[in-house]
Amino acid sequence: MAELAARSSLEEVRQARLVLEPQLAALAARHATPRQHAALRAALRDGCAPGQSWRGFEGQDARLHREIAAAAGNLALLHLFDQLATLRRTLTWDRQRLRPGGPPPDHPSFAEHARIVGAIVEGDAEGASAAMAGHVGHVHRLIEAEPPRTAP
Predict the structure, then answer these.
(1) Phi/psi at 96 (nearest 5 deg)?
(2) What pTM did the predictor assign?
């Protein structure tokens, strides 16, 4: 994975996420069980907890996105998601932040995640897909606006 990360770009990760994650959200809207709905709500709640560090938020964000992928009910796609998530973390988690400390209470991902989970729980596959596509695009625009990574 480290070799792939060294040869990949954030743009490639964005493109891959836009291919995979909206479809996973749509499948989750079609196939998620009540137990998975509860897991999605818990991940959403924990991800929006105030006062968390960026690392804490990123961990909760990863948890929510993986819960969505698992709720899609397709083990092959879940495996692909896990590989893409590892690549995404490798490329993005050590970056500098425009706002140090942690996400602000009105961080846009909180509302975007709520729209995604809401659509999944309501069984709205089209809405879940559109919300996920919008979220992935917005996250990558925010990443591009941040200062470049510095060498350790």
Answers:
(1) -75, 160
(2) 0.89
